[in-house]
Amino acid sequence: MIRVLLVDDQAVVRAGFRVILEQSGEIEVVAEASNGTAAVDLARRTNPDVICMDVRMPGGDGLAATRRIVAEAPGEPPAVLVVTTFDLDEYVFGALESGASGFILKDCEPEELIEAIRRLANGQGLVDQAVTRRVISEFARRRPVPESDAPAAYQLTARETEIVVLLARGLSNVEIATELFIETSTVKSHLGRAMAKIGARDRLQTVVWAYQHGVVSR
Q1: Model pTM?
Q2: Dihedral sign from CA coordinates of 156, 159, 163, 169
Q3: Domains assigned to the chain
Q4: What is the pLDDT of residues 108-118, one digit of tens each?
């Protein structure tokens, strides 16, 4: 079972999400919070796999809470899926900067929400279809990595770099394997080593890193 923490200031939204998620048969809602401050405490106490996080909430916003949860986790932090009614670039930028693993709009279909949680639980970052690579590229442009950190890009092998570039262009593991004439398992192995080297928790953060370090041209 995938353990999920729901964070939203509207009780009716949390109740609706709980019904949708628990009807899937593979997701358990372990706790609910109505603001960011409570979310930080519950994340520490319940150790969820994924947190569905609203952005605007009284008593502590979701982006600040995400930043604290990611920074204060004693081990591997839970994946944070930012779920919001707002699709403005700035909210996406804020989510990425705070360490979120995914971003989806509240008007998504129930199946899309469930699939997003599955992906994050499996270590695959996600951006809503309405949010294109342009957003990630612009995010990297606005928040460039200091030149002193640039050499980190050269820790990757040629094959690892090749795979990260294809990942940033939107290819799946299967598509990357086809493109490079290698096995899907080999792609996963190289990508896993690349993510470990750069300290990325998931695919989305790997793509952000690639843009910030100039591994992928903007």
Answers
A1: 0.78
A2: positive
A3: 2-131 (3.40.50.2300), 145-212 (1.10.10.10)
A4: 899 999 999 99
